[in-house]
Each structure stands twice: as C-alpha cells, then as structure tokens.
UniProtKB/TrEMBL annotation:
Domain Pyruvate carboxyltransferase, chain residue ranges per copy: 7-274
Keywords: Lyase, Metal-binding
Swiss-Prot/TrEMBL GO biological process terms: ketone body biosynthetic process; L-leucine catabolic process
Protein name: hydroxymethylglutaryl-CoA lyase
Signal peptide: none
Species of the source: Pseudoduganella lutea
EC number, UniProt record: 4.1.3.4
Catalytic activity: (3S)-3-hydroxy-3-methylglutaryl-CoA = acetoacetate + acetyl-CoA
The protein's annotated pathway: Metabolic intermediate metabolism; (S)-3-hydroxy-3-methylglutaryl-CoA degradation; acetoacetate from (S)-3-hydroxy-3-methylglutaryl-CoA: step 1/1
Amino acid sequence: MDLPKKVKIVEVGPRDGLQNEKENVPAEVKIELVNRLSAAGFVNVEAAAFVSPKWVPQMATSREVMDGIARKPGVIYSALTPNMQGFEAALAAKADEVVIFGSASEAFSQRNINCSIAESIARFEPVAKAAKDNGVRLRGSISTAFGCPYQGDVPLDAVADVVARMRDLGCDEIDIADTIGVATPRHTQAVMETAIRAFRIDALSGHFHDTYGQALANIYASLELGISIFHSSVAGLGGCPYAKGATGNIATEDVLYMMNGLGIETGVDLDAVAEAGHYISQFLGRKSSSRAGNALLAKRNG
Ligand SMILES: CC(C)(COP(=O)([O-])OP(=O)([O-])OC[C@H]1O[C@@H](n2cnc3c(N)ncnc32)[C@H](O)[C@@H]1OP(=O)([O-])[O-])[C@@H](O)C(=O)NCCC(=O)NCCSC(=O)C[C@@](C)(O)CC(=O)[O-]
C-alpha cells in the first residue's frame, strides 16, 4: 500500500510530556509552550488533564492553562477527562475535545485510574453522552495496547475489545498507545490491524513512547498500513507516572523530520517546533531528547 500523502500530528507535550515532571512547571510556561506549538502549525494540541491533583499534581494548573492560551482558530485544544468531574471542568475550561482514557490491561487500569476496564467504560458512558450533548469532540485513548508494565503481554483480543467499547461510546478518534514503548514494527502492525478491523482507519492514531528506541520504526510500520494520525511530544518530553522507567513520547521534531523526508504533508513547521523544544528544554534545565531538534539547533548555531 502507498503511504498516506498527509498525516495529522497531535502534539501531546504540554500534557503527556509535562505530567510527570517532578518540579512544578508554572502555568505561564505551559501557556507559552502551547502558544508556540499552535503557532508552529499543529491543528491539535493536548493542553490539559482534568484529573485528580492528588494523583497527578503537575496537571493541577490545567484550568489556568486553558484560560491563558491564545486560541488559534481551527486548533483543537484537548483535555483528559477520566470521569464526569473531569468533564465538567473541561467544559468550563472550553476544551474542544475531551479524552477518555482506558487501558487494554486490567493491571494498568487499576494503577492508572483506580478501577477495572469494565468500571472505566461505565464511568466513560456519561462523559461520552455529555460530550455529544455539548458538541465536544470525544477521543478514546487505549493505554498498554502493546504491553503492560505490571501484566506483561497484552493479548490482541483485549485490544480489540476495548477498541470496540470506545467505538460504541461514540469516539470520534481512538488512540492505540504504547505506554511503555515496548512495541516493534511487526508487533505494531499486528495490533494496528486488529484495531483497523474494529474502527475506521482514518480515525485511528498511533501513540508511541520511545523507551526502547522503536517509536519511529513503529510509526513507519503504521504508515505502511495507512494509519495517518500520530501523537508526539516536543523535545521528546514525558513519561507516565504509572509506568516506571518509561520514557517520553517519540519527539515531534524527529517525526516531522521523517515525514518531511518521506514527502508526507503535516502542515507543521519543523524549525518552529525545534525552537519550542529548545524553549521548554532550557526551562527544564536539560538537553532535548530529540535527535533532529538538537541537530537543527546545532546547525543554526554554526
Ligand atoms: C480517575 C481518578 C480521579 C480516580 O481516583 P479515585 O481516587 O478512585 O476517585 P474518587 O472518585 O474516589 O475521588 C477521590 C478524590 O479525587 C477527586 N477527583 C475525582 N475525579 C477528579 C477529577 N476529574 N478532577 C479532580 N479531582 C477529582 C475527588 O473529588 C475526590 O477528592 P477528595 O474528596 O478526596 O478531596 C484518579 O485515579 C486519577 O485522577 N487518575 C489520574 C490518572 C492520570 O492522569 N494518568 C496519567 C494520564 S493517562 C496517560 O498518560 C496515558 C496516555 C493517555 O498518555 C496514553 C498512553 O501513553 O498510554
């Protein structure tokens, strides 16, 4: 199959990327980051999570962030919402899209959202209905679709089951997430083919962490199947608080460099993203983990 000519990159750095930072990242820094990212051309930026601040303290500034960003017309600003309390907060903060986040592994579901998979779907039902009633886009995210830090292997049937449940809730888009970055290309294709049998291919996305350095290869393997939505984090920020040792998402700059080389349109300005990556890395006091981002900045600086 030919590779897609155009892909959508969902920038998840301000949420997935920063949620695990030990040091408090002030709202104004997050706001500046989101503004730089929307200016760079992303049509979807994951900016907030309305979750319990006891569970994920870094996301406690989500309302401030949503209130402070300069909204660019046409950009979808997304927020995670595990339950109705989160949905009400996201609605009040004018999120364009809410994300219900479940798991293909029972053990991870318990650690991450303190309930079983079946209980999580029951919690998502009113959120999904409220999203539809209020004209808010609904995205479903499925963690540990390729492996679980607590349970190990995750069967394909378990992924198919959660994709079907998210579909039946009315999700506009469904993310297949490699939370701990263990997938390899053929495994990626097996999981994605399973998801494609249960949901529209043009609304399925790949969310790859880069723990074992496989994320770009997994994105390429997904492109070969026709998947055309991918998540990534500027400067490769991130890690999940409930997946010890897992590194960040694949760096956005690296994905853009590959897409540009393949002649696949993204609508995003790689240099502007590299600058945004430099901005947040300087704030955090460490080097960006994006190879392409670092190479571009080194070239710029002579
Ligand atoms: C789901 C809960 C809330 C259940 O947590 P719980 O303790 O079972 O919930 P509860 O309903 O019993 O409520 C307990 C307390 O939490 C409060 N609470 C309850 N809900 C909310 C809310 N929405 N916003 C703010 N506060 C809330 C509630 O008000 C109460 O406060 P208290 O009376 O004790 O003061 C909790 O487990 C939680 O917040 N977990 C957060 C998990 C999380 O954010 N994980 C990281 C994001 S997922 C991820 O990164 C993976 C992804 C998406 O990127 C894809 C991938 O790579 O895999």
